[in-house]
DNA sequence: CTACGTTTTCTAGCATTGCTAGATTTTTGC
DNA sequence: GCAAAAATCTAGCAATGCTAGAAAACGTAG
């Protein structure tokens, strides 16, 4: 039952849905999440508010979630690319690159990153129904740790702690809780502790 | 010009201000910050909304800040008590106790903790105009690290990173991003990385 | 005790928010 | 070309943070 007309319509709908998510993300990055209102979003895509709800029945929160999922795909992509076997690095360098790419993402897309972790999705990194990209990112950390000269005994726990540590540093950096301009030294210190 | 009547009035005002902050904190811990509305707060203290603004001219955000400041005093108190010289511990145990008391606070007062770090107060831990309790807590971490067998070269940076790591673990734990029930193992892993 | 002036408090309302029911327009299928 | 169906819009609700102006309570002087 996929007539050309129906296919065309489906494509237009998917297109519009992407525009909604893109508009939400752009607005959030430019003016913060509190500026992402349903009225502004509907203005941005040139439709009225109820159209948003035809795409996202749960409303605003579901749109934020969509942005978060996009962000997870990007972050996981960056992290997996960092640990790709073709650019083989010694174990410690691999961990460092991973941490750097993570912090880089959080720094360049603060609102998106905020959505990814403020959300109470309540799903562990390594569970069965974890969003695929999140799980990929977690596995990238596990792989990097496994490549160390002296890998930790409990890889999963170590990966969770490393993720937590990097996440905390990213958060406090963003909140300007750290002394300004010492980010590189902090990264070095953080990596030093985990590659030991 | 401190007549008894004026003093009494000042005391009553201070009392009411405390009730506002306490009500906000209780409501946030019970139902989350989105449930902390000016109407509910004024109901809780038995006055109308404008009374809130006579105490906190900047409105709701200033009340949240007051809760955050209270939390910082408590957290700093717990951390400083942990590192008190009377209960002298070996360096590593001191760091472990510090981390544990920190995570314990975040776990028992999640909404208060959220206010403390979601706020864009934009003040570093170790700056001149940092809230006193935050600075005390930071110094407690520095002191604990200094007491290690092999203290890190750059104490301030190491303390920032340790704070960030613990903060990240606290946040992800709260967001249920970690595998359930392994908190103790994570704490052990975290401490292990920072004490040697 | 009264009457006035000050201070405190409340009532009522504004603009904005997320969201939705019902009317209206557009598209579809024959 | 026309009726059924789908898509979209208009208009509105309840709740939010916040505030101006009315009302009440208070303090002080006579």
TrEMBL record, chains A, B:
It comes from the Bacteria. InterPro entries: Homeodomain-like_sf, HTH-type_TetR-like_transc_reg, HTH_TetR, MT1864/Rv1816-like_C, Tet_transcr_reg_TetR-rel_C_sf. Residues 20-62 form the HTH tetR-type domain. The keyword Flavoprotein does not apply. Residues 95-193 form the HTH-type transcriptional regulator MT1864/Rv1816-like C-terminal domain. Keywords: DNA-binding, Transcription, Transcription regulation. It holds the Pfam family TetR_N. This is TetR/AcrR family transcriptional regulator. It comes from Occultella gossypii.
